[in-house]
């Protein structure tokens, strides 16, 4: 390949890095939000993906902030004067971090291999504790092997020719032994691991006949893992081909500059492909996450209700007096790329000066940073000072989505943002059968109307319900009866139903068993609540205690069979964890230490109720007798 392509190849590598950086930031924000139940990724894959993207993000920052400017001769004096410590960061980036990324890819490969070969038992092999040990080992060894870079190894720089002919810099270590130590072993180790990864995926292909027995989620993550590793194989083939050509024909396949540029493109792709594969293969899951994202750009505008319609370029078609009413952004006369945003919540209130205070919240595609701005007028310079840079920033953060789907700028927001359904849950003023649904709303951060019907109002409200019972969930005004039907609907919607159909079936099985248990203990509970007359102590001994022992023995065994991991099913929170944990609280109000003989069940309750979002709801919910 001719040397004249050298500048274009270098620019190609830089474009790959720059366009991927905002996507990396967006994906990391989503994954680090710890909302994996809603994202719908398997826990093992989710953890490894988070570590890989973290490594890729750090590598991209080092390349963009240090390596590339120095190569092009930008701020050459600064980089030359600080080359002593910058060179160590660059060597850490090019050797240690690269090998660490391959290590995390190998964990995914071996995890997927066991998922294919041992479909029913692979989760027992890859327990959360073992995964944490493996991830910790990778980071610990990387940091430990980097300690000599701090001391005694010293760094410097060398003058190189930049793609445009000016003098650029390349960072090196002063000692030749140090250079070899931080270049040759990582390359050999990475190549060996890549070969093992390739063998693993070949074995998976050989077992393709088993795919009919495997959950779609496993196949999907396995396919994603294969695509994520392709760039590493390309680098190995590229280096091997150049080396073979040199030995076989006693010459160079590429000039030194072109070889360096092609290698750099491969390296850039290697650090970017995970992000783009994640965006493409899990696009629907990430779209759900965007739908559920918290408001991430908020500002308050203070002026009259009339002026916002007339003066603010008709941004909003109608203003409704109800707080938190969903409105849609429309295209009327608006040419700025605000189609990325949507009006989410509106409230009108009177301020001290007699005018209306208009509060507008905006939701963007990219859940990155939150801005909280003071009240200001459109005529104020503060409007431009705050609003314009923020819009430009959010536009930049949405760059990967725009590149993937450029029509975003010219079309109204997609349906998953512009049409969020409204929810209303009607139930008595107690926890009972409606509490698990309330908890899932709060855990997912989904707004809903908590409609509590008093006993006095129930007779006139009863005929309006489908079955003459509560709870009833209204989705955009359409009713859904039966407590467990509601719970299953919300669990599937918010990611608390189990990660696979088999897990979901187990959750349903335990829920059905819970109903049987409630029927057995109902006589005691109605007396304990004061809804009927009876001998509470006698019913406790003859009815409640046998039912408790029978049901919670089943739960204790199930918790043990599930690996004693703090959940009844799988390795993530499900609605059966919620409903059992809440019922234990009710039970202990009438029978102290009712489940003290079941330690694993107690552990699940403790882990469930310690969830920060759930704990926040429990602390603020109304205190009720049942």
TrEMBL record:
Top class in the EC scheme: transferase
Keywords: Membrane, Transferase, Transmembrane, Transmembrane helix
InterPro entries: 7TM_GPCR_serpentine_rcpt_Srv, Glutathione-S-Trfase_C-like, Glutathione-S-Trfase_C_sf, Glutathione_S-Trfase, Glutathione_S-Trfase_N, GPCR_Rhodpsn_7TM, GST_C, GST_superfamily
Top-rank lineage group of the source organism: Eukaryota
Pfam families: 7TM_GPCR_Srv (PF10323), GST_C_3 (PF14497), GST_N (PF02798)
Enzyme Commission number(s) from the entry: 2.5.1.18
GO biological process per UniProt: glutathione metabolic process
GO cellular component, one term: membrane
Subcellular location: Membrane
Reactions the enzyme catalyzes: RX + glutathione = an S-substituted glutathione + a halide anion + H(+)
Residues spanning the signal sequence: none
CDD domains: 7tm_classA_rhodopsin-like, GST_C_Sigma_like, GST_N_Sigma_like
Any one GO molecular function term: glutathione transferase activity
Family membership: Belongs to the GST superfamily. Sigma family.
Protein name (record): glutathione transferase
Taxonomic lineage from the root: Eukaryota, Metazoa, Ecdysozoa, Nematoda, Chromadorea
Gene: WBGene00273958
């Amino acid at each position: 390949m001719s040397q004249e392509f050298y500048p274009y190849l270098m620019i190609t590598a830089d474009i790959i890095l720059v366009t991927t950086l905002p996507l990396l930031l967006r994906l990391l924000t989503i994954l680090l939000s710890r909302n994996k139940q809603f994202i719908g990724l398997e826990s093992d894959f989710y953890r490894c993906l988070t570590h890989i993207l973290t490594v890729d993000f750090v590598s991209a920052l080092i390349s963009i902030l240090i390596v590339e400017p120095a190569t092009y001769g930008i701020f050459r004096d600064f980089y030359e004067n600080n080359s002593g410590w910058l060179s160590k960061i660059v060597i850490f980036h090019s050797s240690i971090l690269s090998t660490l990324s391959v290590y995390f890819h190998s964990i995914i490969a071996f995890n997927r291999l066991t998922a294919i070969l041992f479909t029913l038992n692979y989760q027992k092999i890859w327990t959360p504790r073992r995964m944490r040990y493996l991830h910790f080992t990778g980071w610990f060894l990387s940091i430990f092997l980097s300690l000599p870079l701090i001391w005694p190894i010293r760094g410097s720089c060398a003058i190189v020719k930049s793609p445009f002919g000016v003098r650029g810099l390349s960072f090196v270590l002063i000692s030749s032994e140090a250079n070899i130590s931080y270049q040759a072993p990582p390359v050999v180790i990475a190549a060996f691991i890549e070969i093992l990864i390739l063998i693993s995926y070949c074995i998976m292909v050989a077992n393709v006949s088993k795919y009919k027995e495997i959950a779609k989620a496993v196949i999907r993550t396995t396919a994603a893992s294969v695509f994520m590793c392709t760039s590493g194989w390309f680098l190995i083939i590229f280096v091997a081909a150049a080396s073979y050509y040199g030995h076989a024909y006693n010459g160079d396949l590429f000039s030194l500059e072109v070889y360096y540029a092609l290698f750099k493109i491969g390296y850039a792709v290697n650090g970017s492909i995970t992000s783009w594969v994640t965006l493409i293969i899990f696009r629907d899951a990430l779209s759900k996450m965007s739908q559920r994202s918290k408001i991430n750009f908020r500002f308050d505008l203070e002026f009259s209700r009339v002026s916002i319609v007339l003066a603010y370029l008709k941004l909003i078609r109608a203003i409704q007096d109800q707080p938190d009413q969903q409105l849609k952004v429309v295209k009327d006369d608006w040419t700025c790329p605000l189609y990325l945003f949507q009006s989410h919540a509106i409230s009108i209130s009177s301020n001290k000066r007699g005018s209306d205070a208009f509060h507008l919240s905006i939701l963007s595609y990219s859940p990155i940073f939150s801005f909280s701005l003071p009240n200001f007028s459109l005529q104020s310079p503060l409007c431009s000072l705050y609003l314009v840079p923020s819009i430009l920033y959010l536009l930049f953060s949405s760059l990967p989505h725009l590149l993937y789907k450029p029509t975003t700028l010219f079309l109204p927001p997609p349906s998953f943002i512009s049409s969020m359904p409204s929810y209303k849950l009607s139930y008595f003023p107690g926890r009972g059968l409606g509490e698990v649904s309330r908890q899932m709303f709060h855990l997912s951060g989904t707004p809903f109307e908590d409609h509590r019907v008093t006993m006095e109002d129930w007779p006139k409200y009863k005929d309006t319900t489908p079955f003459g019972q509560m709870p009833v969930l209204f989705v955009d005004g359409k009713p859904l009866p039966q407590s467990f039907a509601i719970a299953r609907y919300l669990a599937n919607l918010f990611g608390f139903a189990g990660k696979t159909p088999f897990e979901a079936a187990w959750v349903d099985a335990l829920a059905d068993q819970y109903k049987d248990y409630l029927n057995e203990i109902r006589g005691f509970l109605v007396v304990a609540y004061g809804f009927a007359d009876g001998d509470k102590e006698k019913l406790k001994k003859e009815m409640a205690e046998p039912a408790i022992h029978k049901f919670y023995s089943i739960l204790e065994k199930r918790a043990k069979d599930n690996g004693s991991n703090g959940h009844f099913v799988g390795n993530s929170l499900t609605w059966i964890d919620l409903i059992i944990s809440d019922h234990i609280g009710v039970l202990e109000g009438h029978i102290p230490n009712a489940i003290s003989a079941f330690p694993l069940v107690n552990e699940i309750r403790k882990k469930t109720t310690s969830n920060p979002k759930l704990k926040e709801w429990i602390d603020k919910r109304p205190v009720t007798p049942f």
